[in-house]
Design goal:
This protein is mainly α. The chain has 10 helices and no strands. The longest helix has 28 residues. The protein is elongated and about 55 Å long. Keywords: DNA-binding, Transcription, Transcription regulation. It holds the Pfam family TetR_C_13. InterPro entries: Homeodomain-like_sf (IPR009057), HTH_TetR (IPR001647), Tet_transcr_reg_TetR-rel_C_sf (IPR036271), TetR_C (IPR011075). This is TetR/AcrR family transcriptional regulator.
Length: about 200
């Protein structure tokens, strides 16, 4: 086990938990849950295994905290999109935010919620459930927003808010998968624009 660096009085050197968590988020984002080893995590975070367990709990608890950090930072565009005055504005802003976040040069490409889902084995079932709930929460928030758009007359009364929310969510996650595969920002934006040319799409 790696030893914790010592300060001048022989005590463990302090580290910034927020910075360490931000580094863990990026590591999970790049490698997924299963691909992120404890050795890799501690190296990326700049802390010892003991410090990881003491400060963040086990690997799964660390991942939960990293996903919360992801919500507060890289995917903060979702709550902003939901505040758009029209349903089309919601979808446009959401997809634009997805494209920006999943193609930033200084960050891993793709989406933590997608990359993190690349898990196997029974030990990871709770992580799969966590990520499924995370994705469903975003879709449910879209559904509620589109229902409000139907109620206000912004969307046709025949529109199914749940189906529309699932459609936009699928576009968003599809963009993330394409970005992880190396598709560029301009091409992704062209795809999003084409998908929203006819609105509502059904």
């Amino acid at each position: 086990m790696a030893s914790t660096p010592k300060g001048p009085v022989g005590r463990p050197r302090a580290f910034d938990p927020d910075e360490a968590l931000a580094r863990a988020m990026l590591f999970f984002w790049e490698h997924g849950y299963e691909g992120a080893s404890l050795a890799g995590l501690t190296e990326a975070m700049g802390i010892s295994t003991t410090s990881l367990y003491t400060t963040f709990g086990n690997k799964e608890e660390l991942f939960r905290k990293a996903l919360e950090r992801y919500d507060e930072g890289p995917t903060a565009y979702l709550p902003r999109a939901l505040q758009e005055p029209t349903a089309l504005g919601v979808a446009t802003t959401l997809l634009a935010g997805t494209i920006r976040t999943t193609t930033r040069p200084a960050h891993p490409h793709g989406c933590l919620g997608v990359q993190g889902a690349l898990v196997t084995g029974a030990a990871s079932s709770s992580v799969r459930d966590l990520l499924a709930a995370w994705r469903n929460d975003g879709c449910n928030r879209l559904r509620e927003r589109f229902q409000a758009a139907v109620d206000s007359g912004d969307l046709p009364s025949a529109t199914d808010p749940g189906t529309l929310a699932r459609y936009v969510s699928t576009l968003s996650f599809g963009i993330a998968v394409q970005a992880a595969g190396g598709v560029g920002r301009d091409e992704l934006q062209a795809m999003a624009d084409a998908a929203l040319t006819s609105w509502p799409p059904f």
